[in-house]
Amino acid sequence: MGSLIACHDCDLIQRLPHLTEPGTVQCIRCGAVLHQKKRNSIERTLSLTLAGLVLFGLANSFPFLAFKLEAQVRQTTLLTGIQELYAQGMPELSIIVLLTTVLAPLAQMLCMLYIVLPLTFKRIPLALPHVFRLLRRLQPWSMMEVFMVGILVSVVKLSKMAKIVPGIALFSFLALIFILAALTASLDSHLIWEKWENRR
Fold first, then answer.
1. Contact status, residue 179 vs residue 145, Cβ threshold 8 Å
2. What is the reported pLDDT for 20?
3. Which of 48, 94, 118, 127 has the most C-beta neighbours closer than 10 Å?
């Protein structure tokens, strides 16, 4: 017997069938997608999480951009950019950038790792519901793509005054944006809750 679920569109309560193969379950009334079982969801999510953590380390360890003006070369990292905002009298903006581009994405990946790593080895992590709810609350705060758009606009404007050389961190940051999107898409939330319910 499957679990009960309410349709997100028409609110019809119906029983969700147990899927043994990847597929999609639709509402019997309006046809909206109720659940989509994904192939190797936990393993793929773990792989993407580990890749994201590696890219995150690269994005915060290497130069983001280098500015060449005549004989002068100045390199900047993601964290030095945040420090510059604070030093220029914009502490609120620096905190927002730190939260949305560093702390929230890192916390999101660590929460995901805490959830899927034990599940890969057939173990249920402690306090899984609390960590999973925290993960959902963190996702709207991860705004790396907005920061990247701001960087691209700045590069276009500064390119008229100096030569801009992109660093390893910039490419890592760009790849991390796509990894986080793929990570969110690969996770089967229903499967997580199903494993929690069947933990005993």
1. no
2. 65
3. 48
Q: What is the DSSP string of 83-127?
A: HHHHHTT-HHHHHHHHIIIIIHHHHHHHHHHHHHHHHHTT-PPTT
Are 135 and 183 in contact, with CB atoms under 8 Å apart? no
**What is the number of other CB atoms lying within 10 angstroms of the CB of residue 89?**
8
Helix (H) or strand (E) holding 186: helix 168-186
Rounded Cα distance between 96 and 99, Å, is 5
- 62-108 pLDDT, tens digit per residue, is 888 877 777 677 777 888 878 888 888 888 988 988 998 899 999 99
CA atoms within 13 A on the CB side of 72: 5
Q: What is the pLDDT of residue 200?
A: 62
Residue of higher predicted confidence among 40 and 58: 58
Kind and range of the H or E element at 38? none
Return the structure tokens found at 114. Answer: 């805490």
Helix (H) or strand (E) holding 68: strand 65-69
Predicted confidence (pLDDT) at residue 1 exceeds the cutoff of 60: no
Q: Specify burial of residue 38 (Cβ count, 10 A radius: 0-12, 13-18, 19+).
A: middle
Query: Is there a contact between 53 and 33 (Cβ–Cβ < 8 Å)?
Result: no
Q: Is the pLDDT of residue 2 over 60?
A: no
Rounded Cα gap, residues 35 and 37, in angstroms = 6
pTM of the model: 0.79
